[in-house]
Amino acid sequence: QVQLVESGGGLVQAGGSLRLSCAASGRSISSYTMAWFRQAPGKEREFVTVIRSSGISTDYADSVKGRFTISRDNTKNTVYLQMNSLKPEDTAVYYCAAYDVRRGNWNSRRLTYGYDYWGQGTQVTVSS
Predict the structure, then answer these.
(1) What does the pLDDT look like over 38-77, one tens digit per residue?
(2) Separation CA 63–CA 38 (nearest Å)
């Protein structure tokens, strides 16, 4: 079992920045692909970004490409999401997710069902 805890959310003005963290416990994340999803009120949970266990490959939703950066530190068992040039439409609860590379599929990286473990989420609110 892997437990994921997000932190770093808050209220920020449009154009500002936030850095989210996802701290994992229970197992090393070195063999897990890690991702961030978000869910705005009244909308479905949507893919934001993902990073392979090695940290070499990443993928981003078009809506955040060039503004958000995912990274990981396997020695600290933590994944990060640096969010710059934030927009009001980025307002959502942000969730960290993980799947074991020995059982998961990179082709499903943008789909919620591809992930076995989820955090409780952290609220990000961007004011205009």
Answers:
(1) 999 999 999 999 999 988 999 999 999 999 999 999 999 9
(2) 12
Whether the Cβ atoms of residue 36 and residue 4 lie closer than 8 Å to each other: no
87-119 pLDDT, tens digit each: 999 999 999 999 999 988 899 999 999 999 999
What is the distance between the alpha carbons of residues 58 and 14, in angstroms, rounded to a whole number?
25
Question: CA–CA separation, 111 vs 109, rounded Å?
Answer: 6
Cα–Cα distance between 88 and 59 in angstroms, integer? 22
Q: Which residue carries 């927009």 as its tokens?
A: 87
Cα(108)–Cα(92) distance, rounded to whole angstroms? Answer: 22
> What is the b/e burial string over 75-94, where b = at least 16 CB atoms within 10 angstroms of the residue's CB?
eebbbbbebeebeeebbbbb
DSSP string, 78-112: EEEEEE-S--GGG-EEEEEEEEETTT--GGGTTSG
